[in-house]
Prior knowledge:
The complex is a heterotrimer of chains A (about 280), B (about 90) and C (about 375). In chain A, about 35% of the residues lie in helices and about 15% in strands. With about 280 residues, chain A is α/β, with parallel strands linked by helices. The longest helix of chain A is centred in the N-terminal third of the chain and has 15 residues, at about 25-35. The radius of gyration of chain A is 18 Å and the shape is globular. Chain A starts with about 20 loop residues before the first helix and ends in an 8-residue tail after the last helix. The model of chain A has no long low-confidence stretch (mean pLDDT about 95). In chain B, the strands form 2 sheets. A two-stranded antiparallel ribbon of chain B has the order 1-4. A two-stranded antiparallel ribbon of chain B has the order 2-3. In chain C, about 35% of the residues lie in helices and about 20% in strands. Chain C is globular. In chain C, strand 6, helix 6 and strand 7 form a beta-alpha-beta unit. Chain C starts with a strand and ends with a helix. The model of chain C has no long low-confidence stretch (mean pLDDT about 95). Chain C is of the alpha/beta class. Chain C has 2 domains: about 1-265, Rossmann fold; about 270-380, 3-Layer(aba) Sandwich (Rossmann fold), CATH 3.40.50. In chain C, helix 1 crosses helix 2, helix 3 packs parallel to helix 4 (about 80-95) and helix 10 crosses helix 13 (about 370-380). In chain C, the strands form 4 sheets. In chain C, strands 3-2-4-5-7-6-13 form a 7-stranded mixed β-sheet, sandwiched between helices. In chain C, strands 10-12-11-14-17 form a 5-stranded mixed β-sheet, sandwiched between helices. The interface of A and B includes residues 21, 176 and 213 of A.
Amino acid sequence: MAEVRDYLRSDALPHIWCPGCGHGIILGAILRALAKLDPPKDDVVVVSGIGCAARAPGYLDFNTLHTTHGRALAFATGIKLAKPHMKVIVLTGDGDAAAIGGNHLIHAARRNIGITTICFNNSIYGMTGGQYSPTTPVGATATTAPYGHLEPAFDLCELAKAAGASLVARGTAYHTVALADLVYQGLQNDGFSFIEAISQCPVSYGRRNKMGDAVDMLRWQKENSVNVRTAAKLAPEELQGKILTGLLHVAPRPEYTKAYDELILRLAPAKGGAQ
Amino acid sequence: MTSQTPHPTTADHSGAEELLPVQFRYEWCKKCGICVAYCPRNALSTGARDLPILSNVAACTQCKLCELMCPDFAITVTPRRRAQASKQEGESA
Amino acid sequence: MTTARLIQGNEACAEGALAAGCRFFAGYPITPSTEVAEMMAARLPRLGGKFIQMEDEIASMAAIIGASLTGHKVMTATSGPGFSLKQENIGFASMCEVPCVIVNVQRSGPSTGGPTTAGQGDIMQARWGTHGDHPIVAFAPYSVQDSFDLTVTAFNCAEDLRVPVVILLDEVIGHMRERVELPETASVTVVDRRRPDPALVSLEEYLPYDNSADPVPLMADFGSGYRYHVTGLNHNQKGMPTGNPAQIDQLVRRLNNKMELAAQRWQVYEELMTEDADVLVVATGGPVRAARSAVRQARADGVKAGMLIIQTVWPFPGARLAQLAARAKRIIVPELNLGQLVLEVERHVCTPAGKVPVTSLSRIDGELFTPNQILDAIKGVS
Lengths: 275, 93, 382
């Protein structure tokens, strides 16, 4: 079995994330999932947009692509359609995926294209200094919500599920072992997998919202999460404000690039076959 | 990106440092304190210049929680058996 | 051996792309470019290629860049409003040196303008639509045959220089039908991007953004065994982000030197009776035909008129124009806009004797110039 450190571009480290940022923990979980899958490195493409989470691919020894804000899934769609045999992974943040990138998220899910997307959700725009995102809760403070945020947050997993993702899951940086397993399942799914990973931003979000330091924020993740199996036995009032974690939705259906390859085979049998 | 100058690592564990079950890559460590807080056996503590150290070697069970929770890829945990075997090899060489 | 066909400019463009080896198209419907996408949707799967209609113009541009990184020759097609949307990702392709072809079948503007009427309002946008100092090449065909030929040239240029290349058609060229001679695919000259050879360049040695490479860095396909990082951030030769001023300066200058390379290797134009022309008409795209008629009529009427037909709009053929201007008494630039190409003309026609007078002819009502309008300008009576 491969090791996490085999996947790192060591001369690019230490990474740029702040002390205590959850992104490094989540990236570690992703790499452990990959180590278990053990694909050839040359077959792996990691694509990102813009933001803190989007800096992750630069640290990884795969084919890596750091694109424009919100557009990772569109670039990744081109890669996967052009070379369906490649393992295509998108690393995105809450702003990148759900604000500017929202349209590409719902269409990639609708197509059920074979891409595994991990959304590092820290409920803030960290890279630019702490503006609110589509997952910042009502009442929170951000640099562009100095009087308390007015907009309700997306439930990203519900969004991905409604758009057609064939596998949807949620984990947290705190529950890193479970997260690695969810990512592994996502990688194995032949279709669009969406894994939301709750992360902590101690500097831009935690400090401004009096959530303490990274250790405190991780404890908050632990205390405010409920696994979906446990949640099934709880009353709705007990689940108010809780983060639902685990494998939330599995609904296999035809994967897009396979459907297109079948079209080629039908029209031009000599030209068909997976590339 | 250039890596930082490595911090001195042998001040507290002279000689036996490379055989300890918890190895720190201090040039990547950002001193967030998560590993120290999360060790279930309190085997880690904060040492000189706020860097984490394996201060209670006997308490360490190599559960790997510190390695998993470290955001900086700065910790590697090696099972004790392997560390002991390496030490014996080193001594007989 | 060629095959004679009666097709529209948009179709000729698609045929040119396929002949040049394009096997990936991502697009979004927009008048008057939609036929390009429709034809690619029908032809590509039969050739083992891939077509996808993306959710918007921005995604189309992103998808073709992704596919190009895997080694495919790629194209998208749009019109004014979509061209505006694509600009950020066009800049990404330019910065990351990803070959791709963007067809812009111009319509009258600004904004929604006239989807089915003629215009050339995107000439400057083709050069400067995306932010920052960036290289980009643009071709403008003036006939259906030229649409085929210049599309092949566009692909070859993109592969040669690792740049995004724009093809500026317009509503009239795109939708008119003419007889064309389509060559056999095997006889079409095709240029492929230069890739590193594993026998000569190891994974560790490979520099995807090698500043000393001539003319441009070698480009490895994603998945071929060379693993590297591609980012729109300022980056070093390995593709990793950098804040080092010397590295940034070196990168941006090397990128923009591609405009000079394009001028040396891909400058396409035609000349009509320029050897002794007193009055020089400079035109590109749609107005060329009317201008050509006017020039020929002027000659018949005793006026020494000549014409420079610009097919590579960017880089602008300033050097050749300056040579022709030295002999001319007047220059006329008919455009379906309020004066964009003329700005480039004006800055290249200063001679030791002074600046040659330049007349900007504009038509922005969605209609074409008539030959008489241009003839009047040549004779100085308009």
